[in-house]
Design goal:
By secondary structure, the protein is an all-beta fold. The strands form 5 sheets. The protein has a 5-stranded antiparallel β-sheet, with no helix packed on it. A 3-stranded antiparallel β-sheet has the order 3-6-9, with no helix packed on it. It is elongated.
Length: 281
């Protein structure tokens, strides 16, 4: 789509051609003068017209799958890494988009942890899958885009987040309550809070990449997932039923499980890629 913008220079008026980006792929929506392409599954983003500086640039967000949780005093799963780019310029071409799955919860096993989320890629950027939540008998949270929360055993080591994509998982309290999973906006909570870290609000007004709440022994309240799709954990009064998966297509970390009793850990939420550009004025 082209038009003409009016420019003033030191010698009088002239006209500069305005050429906007034109593209296809994903689910397309508009909001004012902006067009959005949302990928909830892998696909191709094809730019047919690259546009020029007068027509604007491309903004995009790539979020990976969130980490799964363990069983038996599990730390919350870490959120998938979230990469945000503004003001990008891209050539006319077909760009592969890959959406990472959420990490699986631990299978019915006292020693098992969840699995790390899967990376997402798009427009040359890669977001790292979220770290898994810990287990009482395997107390370290997994590293990832955001780190998984730790249990008090095995040195009480929360998972590390990737700088610029997420934050660390939470550290367990001294009396044994595990830490929440890290989110894109903040680290997982510690000191018996056990909530997941909040995600980040993107340009479309929606939060993504929240950490999972822990499966915390002895707490009277239920640890919450962070804003942005983090799963809810469980407490000592509710051993499994209130725990939830990370929300699909948010990169949210999984909620932790207090006791397994024949059940598995929860799964992280799958990732998402969203691209926007100005298509009119």
């Amino acid at each position: 789509m082209t038009g003409f913008g009016y420019n003033i220079n030191g010698f009088g008026a002239d006209y500069t051609r305005v050429e906007y980006y034109e593209a296809s792929g994903g689910t397309t929506t508009t909001d004012g003068d902006y067009k959005y392409h949302t990928f909830t599954g892998s696909g191709t983003f094809t730019i047919s017209v690259a546009g020029n500086s007068a027509g604007g640039t491309i903004d995009y967000m790539v979020t990976a799958g969130g980490g799964g949780s363990g069983i038996d005093n599990s730390g919350g799963g870490g959120a998938g890494g979230m990469v945000r780019v503004t003001g990008a310029t891209k050539s006319a071409a077909a760009y592969s988009i890959v959406i990472g799955a959420g990490g699986a919860g631990a299978i019915n096993d006292d020693s098992g942890t969840g699995s790390q989320g899967v990376n997402s890629t798009g427009l040359g950027s890669t977001a790292t899958g979220g770290g898994h939540g810990s287990n009482f008998n395997n107390g370290a949270g997994g590293d990832g885009g955001s780190g998984g929360g730790s249990s008090i055993t095995n040195g009480n080591n929360p998972g590390d987040g990737v700088s610029g994509q997420g934050n660390d998982g939470g550290t367990a309290a001294n009396d044994g309550a595990p830490g929440g999973g890290g989110g894109a906006g903040e680290a997982g909570n510690t000191d018996r809070q056990s909530d997941g870290g909040d995600g980040v609000e993107w340009l479309n007004g929606t939060f993504y990449a929240g950490g999972g709440g822990a499966g915390a022994e002895g707490l009277a309240y239920t640890p919450s997932g962070g804003d942005g799709g983090g799963g809810t954990g469980t407490n000592g009064r509710n051993t499994y039923g209130s725990s939830t998966d990370g929300t699909v297509n948010t990169g949210g970390g999984a909620g932790g499980v207090r006791l397994h009793r024949g059940n598995n850990g929860r799964s992280g939420g799958s990732g998402i890629v969203i691209i926007r550009y100005k298509y009119q004025n």
